[in-house]
């Protein structure tokens, strides 16, 4: 036990990193046999042990000879050499010491009297002298150089048997948690695993990150929230590994033991980082080996891996990442780039805030919007294109603020259009088809009205419209006239879709019409303001003279058809208004109330955009049409 350690709390990530760097020295270089050294990085310079070539070598097939014997030779006055004045050499063969040049066989003819040479062959011609390529003692490669195939071959020729490689820290990840199921248990648990259980997904995530860094990660079998077993696993880790990563148990739960185990058994160096997510991360020592605790939520694990674990491993491995470029190295991207925020962003005060971003480019401006901020959201982590790392002093970033971002995925913004608008499963499938044509539709679900307003502000290439005008009973026309008074947008109808009541299978409450929503005790799930489906609901209720305020659940704002239908499927609501496809996807019953045209619209200025052209060509794709028909409730004409 290292009682001399004092624990720093509430500290910036960089300070935590510095504490680790000060406390744990880089690992020694590793000798690696040359044949196995592919992909390694040199820890020291390497000098040649032998000359290459180590003998004077013929560069052509021909005759080795003394250059002075051919000094007068020319096609007009060939020279005849007697048999003791030349000898045959193949390309690469040794030139005898008595010879200093090689004449190409094409410039000679050998006859019974000797060799006829038609060209003067100056000293050294066609001879590769000793050490021409490499001289013994010559510096061949320097620290930090990657061992490429060419370097490997060169070092072999230069007589180098093994190389000093940068150390590769051996790292063990110990997942912990009583609630965590192994992958086998997860799939064995059926379609609905018991509440409170979570699959052990962090090691899959971490392994992938390590692979991207060119490092291996070993994973310990799952350990329950039991201090004795956690200590035992740490003992095993410290015995055989250079670094131990302890998963979860980092916050204040009754089953969170990481801090107390470390504090009592090894030493806690720091705890509570000024970053979000990842705040409960901690660092310590166990039997002299570094231990880092990764908070359990996936995004927290990833952020701590990027921001702390990888830079620390690079320190242990003595890799020379220039200061300030640590995150680019961890994230595997180039210099941060700049975008403008499509929406305001508020950052937690005093915290370095890691934000998952989606990006698009409109005209010449790269724009970005944040995805979910929840540390538990894996979808946001998988879906985002980029990360914004907001410095601790950032508070409010108004809409339009510049923001620098690190790319996580290759983005082809020339071939990406930004769609803002309604949620629609068929349109989602269309976006997948567009991918197959090498282009992308970035989708931001903001409802029909939100999409039209975004188009009007020049913040999207494309929006959707399925809005019923209660006054006229006509879809879309009046809304487009309002948002595009100058008529500068094109419009195209994609399909019609059925809207209706989505109720549990078998319709246990016997709901039939919109009037039934007003019955006592009926729990509704509604959509967000601005969603076309909510506009339709309001219209249908209004027609029947039903005041929305009286409906239980009218204030519930689901942002997609699937979210609303899932509320019904899970028993949280008795009914929602939505499309037939959402009901069918979840095996729910559907009572059809309306058929609406689903149109897409966009400014003419973007016509010809490659992603828009790809989208238009997908509309004719029979495979997509079949896929849409199978969703249920979509049709091509009224
Ligand atoms: N009262 C407080 N509660 C929490 C605080 C706090 O300061 N006070 N901090 C929150 C923050 S921030 C985070 S982050 C989490 C950290 O949680 P722990 O590290 O203690 O981890 P658990 O509570 O055990 O698990 C959290 C979450 O992650 C899931 N998990 C854990 N391991 C894995 C794994 N290997 N693979 C996938 N998912 C995993 C776990 O099941 C939980 O759902 O604490 C907050 N609470
Ligand atoms: O800091 Mo926690 O890691 O936000 O979710």
Automatic annotation (TrEMBL):
Record InterPro entries: MoaB/Mog-like_dom_sf, MoaB/Mog_dom, MoeA-like, MoeA_C_domain_IV, MoeA_C_domain_IV_sf, MoeA_linker/N, MoeA_linker/N_sf, PBP_domain
Biological-process GO terms, alphabetical: Mo-molybdopterin cofactor biosynthetic process
Primary enzyme class: transferase
Pathway, per record: Cofactor biosynthesis; molybdopterin biosynthesis
Domain of life: Bacteria
Residue ranges annotated for the MoaB/Mog domain, each copy included: 172-315
Catalysed conversion reaction: adenylyl-molybdopterin + molybdate = Mo-molybdopterin + AMP + H(+)
GO cellular component terms given for this protein: cytosol
Cofactor: Mg(2+)
UniProt keyword annotations, A-Z: Magnesium, Metal-binding, Molybdenum, Molybdenum cofactor biosynthesis, Transferase
GO molecular-function term, one example from the UniProt record: molybdopterin molybdotransferase activity
Record-listed E.C. numbers: 2.10.1.1
Role summary: Catalyzes the insertion of molybdate into adenylated molybdopterin with the concomitant release of AMP.
Family to which this protein belongs: Belongs to the MoeA family.
Name of the featured protein: Molybdopterin molybdenumtransferase
Organism: Aminomonas paucivorans DSM 12260
UniProt lineage: Bacteria, Thermotogati, Synergistota, Synergistia, Synergistales
